[in-house]
Structure formats: structure tokens, C-alpha cells
Amino acid sequence: MQNGTSSSFITASDGLRLHARCYGARTASATPVVCLPGLARTAADFEALASALSHEKPFRRVIALDYRGRGLSQYDSNPANYALPVELADVLAVVTALDVTPAIFVGTSRGGILTMLLAAVRPTAIVGAVLNDIGPVIEPQGLMRIKSYVGKLPQPRSFEEGADILRRLFSGQFPKLDAKDWLASAHRTFKDEKGRLVPTYDVKIATTMNGVDAERRVPPLWLQFDALRAKPLMVIRGANSDLLTGETVEAMRARRKAMDVIEVPDQGHAPLLTDAATIGRISEFVHRCDRTIH
After folding, report:
1. Which of 8, 102, 157, 274 is most buried, by the most CB atoms less than 10 A from its CB?
2. DSSP string covering 113-141
3. What pLDDT, on a 0 to 100 scale, did the predictor assign at position 291?
4. How many CA atoms lie within 13 A of 239 on its CB side?
5. Which residues are registered as beta bridge partners of 7?
């Protein structure tokens, strides 16, 4: 079946089991797409986008990853391994095992950082890149906000209560989401485990934020960003984002005149990539990437 959906499990170099959600057939002719989620997010965030891209003609494979400690991937007994170098090695292990490169990479937040790092170490793996609400300069106030809730969410007694928790936390950045949207978000953020709702990630991932300080900026990633210089590039920014500023987007555009830019109204960090307009723009970009290699 050209556009079926399945799960694949891949063994990382240290033996840990990783999960990837696969859309479309291995034999699909168009350039594959690899979707990389944010820090405490899972492959489920890309369901709408991956389904849309895999159903279009020409058919294409779309692979959405769960990093270690997230979603259906195995949790790591050593939280120090929830680190970018290990996760980059995991991404390489998955795309190699699934024979999915060269591909177009769609990276949300941490996934965009991993995409830039991949461009620096394995540029031939990337045909084009979509950076969702992330750039070479990462704002400390956005990181501090993420640090305030990752691994610290209250435990809801129901998905409806989970939706209410998320609405209270994030409605400032996403003021137009309705009750149905918040409930869907709760189902992506929590899972039922032995009758209790728990996050869809290992709460020890919070240790990755230990070094985050409001007074200390993260070293910029311009060198890694410039590794994408020969690749088609799209940047998506949430209009309410506190992690990627408009000024940083303009600095990126100054280095990449042909860069596609989308600003998603009424959304913050990170745009959900579920609305028809944004999916349509990503689809157009993906088709342009096809033409650069065919």
C-alpha cells in the first residue's frame, strides 16, 4: 500500500531501542522527508503533516522520530545521554537503518538544531531543510520558560484536566486554540500508564536544561547554520515565539537571500504544523526540493 503507516524499531549504537513512525512505502519515488520533534515532544506532533505529505503524488516516505526517552523509544538509564551528540548519532542510526537518505529534514526546535548539526557532519544526507521556530540564535527567556515546565507538569486525573493544564501554561502563546485543540494537545503530551496519566517522555530529560541561565546566552550556531548554505531552506516562526526572534530571522535571511520564511499568526513556540495553510506551504517547498535533485 503506497500510503500506509507503520512503526519501526531501530537499535542505537549503544543497544537502546528507538522508534520511528513511517508513512508511505519504501518504494515511493519522491524525496523522503524526515521529521525531528522538539525537546520533550514525539513523532505524534507530525501526524497531520506526515499524513498529508505521504498521501500526495508523487508518493513519498515520511519518517517521524521519537528520540531516546520519548514516545515509544526506550528510556535511557543514564540521563546524561539525553544530549545532542548522542541524539545526532541516533538520528543517523535511524536514517541509515531505514535507508531514507538523502532526505528533506523538518526539524522543530531541538529537531532543527539536530538538522543544522547533521548538515555540518553529514551534508550529503540533506536535500533541503525546514527549521520550525529555531535558528542559530536561541533566546534565553524562551529557554527559561521551557526549563520551567519540562519534567515538572502536574499529573492530571484525566485528559480533559491535562488539556486545562496545557491551556493555562501555553494560551499566552497560542491564544486562538479551542477546547478541541487543547484536548488533542493533551493526548500528545500525556499517556495512560497503569491507570495514571504521565508525560510521553522521561521526566529526567529535564536534566538537559540544568545549565540554562537567564543571564547566559547559548553560543550561536552560525557555523552549523551555514552548513545548510547549498540546500533549499525554509524557516517557520511563530509570531508569538520567545525562542526565535524576528531579528534573528532577518539575520538568517541576510545570509540566505532565497530562504523561504513563514510567520504563523497567533502561535508561539513552536508552531503546530497542523493548519492547512502551513502544511500547504511546506508541501510546495518539498516539491521544489524534489526538482533540485531530479
Report:
1. 102
2. HHHHHHHHH-GGGEEEEEEES--SS--HH
3. 81
4. 8
5. 21
Whole-number percent of the chain with pLDDT over 70: 98
Instruction: Please report the beta strands in the chain, taking only residues with DSSP state E, as ranges in sequence order.
Output: 5-11, 17-23, 33-36, 62-66, 103-108, 126-132, 190-193, 196-199, 233-238, 260-264
Mean pLDDT score, 252-263: 96
Type of residue found at 292: T
Instruction: Report the range of poorest mean pLDDT among 102-106, 118-122, 213-217, 220-224.
Output: 213-217
Buried b (16+ CB within 10 A) or exposed e, 259-289: bbebebeebbbbbbbbeeebbebbeebbeeb
Single-letter amino acid, residue 153:
L
* Arithmetic mean of pLDDT, 125-140: 97
pLDDT of residue 293: 67
* Domains located in the chain, CATH noted: 5-138+219-293 (3.40.50.1820)
Residue 73, amino acid: S
Q: 71 and 181 in contact (C-beta within 8 Å)? A: no
Contacts of residue 226, defined as CB under 8 A and 6 or more positions apart, other chains included, come to 255
For all residues of the chain together, what is the average pLDDT? Answer: 96
Query: Which residues are within 8 A (CB) of 32 and not within 5 positions of it... i.e. 6 or more apart?
Result: 60, 61, 62, 63, 100, 101, 103, 104
Number of separate helices (H) and strands (E) present in the chain: 9, 10
Give the C-alpha separation, 238 to 235, whole Å.
10
pLDDT for res 294: 54
Burial of 55: CB neighbours in 10 Å, binned 0-12, 13-18, 19+: middle
Diameter over CA atoms, the chain? 53
| 29, 57 Cβ separation under 8 angstroms | no
